[in-house]
Amino acid sequence: MAIQEIFKYPSPILRKKAANVSRFNEELQQLIQDMADTMYEAPGVGLAAPQIGISRRVVVIDITPKEEDNKLIVLINPEIISGEGSQVDEEGCLSVVDLTAKVKRFDQITVKAHDINGKLHEFEAEEWFARVIQHEIDHLNGTLFLDHLSSLKRALYKKKRKKQLMREKEEAEKND
Ligand code: NI
Fold first, then answer.
1. From its phi and psi, is residue 31 left (phi > 0), alpha (psi between -120 and 50) or beta?
2. Residue 84 catalytic?
3. Which of 14, 79, 131, 167 sits in a 20 to 30 Å window from 123, CA-based?
4. Centre of ligand 1 from the C-alpha of residue 133, in Å
5. Annotated active-site residue in 136, 170, 171, 173
6. Sign of CA dihedral 144, 147, 149, 153
7. What is the pLDDT of residue 1?
8. What's the rounded Cα separation, in Å, for the pair 85 and 126?
9. What's the half-sphere exposure (Cβ side, CA atoms, 13 Å) at 1?
10. Mapped to the 3 state alphabet, what secondary structure does the chain carry?
11. Where are the domains of the chain?
């Protein structure tokens, strides 16, 4: 178990386009393990590698209900091949603290991704699962769900977050 620190907005790593994975080795397995541990601990339903400071195209997802056994889904170099329909629902993000907002997404998507052994899979996803995949793939491209909101909502959040960080800094200095 290695729970990692989750990088939060406005950390620059969250804005970088992540690099493709080409080696399906032990290091990748370790990264996936760390990501899963960090996601379950948070807890969250999805996590992208850039959120723990690793700019690689790796995503972990688990949308099984709490009372059921964990079912980890690992997507490496995931790509949305096609999308259909639309859905609007509330979203949040482990890297965007204290904010949820409605975001419009495709309702059904076809996805291509490698598994942990490097084998390529193609599958369809819909509704909430499709939403989580779209949110996590956004992370690999340096996009946050914030970017799907109106510029006004984004500006308000930016301001609120700035104040929050300033307060945290003041607190830390006081305790020095
Ligand atoms: Ni997120």
1. alpha
2. no
3. 14
4. 10
5. 136
6. positive
7. 61
8. 10
9. 6
10. CCCCCCCCCCCHHHHCCCECCCCCCHHHHHHHHHHHHHHHHCCCCEEEHHHHCCCECEEEECCCCCCCCCCCEEEEEEEEEEEECCEEEEEEECCEEEEEEEEEECCEEEEEEECCCCCEEEEEEEHHHHHHHHHHHHHHCCCCHHHHCCHHHHHHHHHHHHHHHHHHHHHHHHCC
11. 12-175
Q: Per CATH, the architecture of 12-175 is what?
A: Alpha-Beta Complex (3.90)
Task: For residue 152, give both structure tokens.
Answer: 């006004």
Distance 32 CA to ligand 1 centre (A): 16
User: pLDDT, tens digit, for every residue of 56-69?
Assistant: 999 999 999 888 99
How far does the centroid of ligand 1 lie from the alpha carbon of residue 93, in Å? 4
The closest alpha carbon to 49, from 63, 38, 35, belongs to: 35
Name the band, by pLDDT with cuts 50, 70 and 90, for residue 176. confident
- Total-model pTM: 0.96
* Confidence check: pLDDT of 29 > 80: yes
Q: Are residues 17 and 141 in contact, defined by beta-carbon separation less than 8 angstroms?
A: yes
Neighbours of ion ligand 1 (CB under 5 A): 93
**Residue corresponding to tokens 């991704």:** 113
Which structure tokens are listed for 133? Answer: 């995949």
Q: What is the Cα gyration radius of the chain?
A: 17
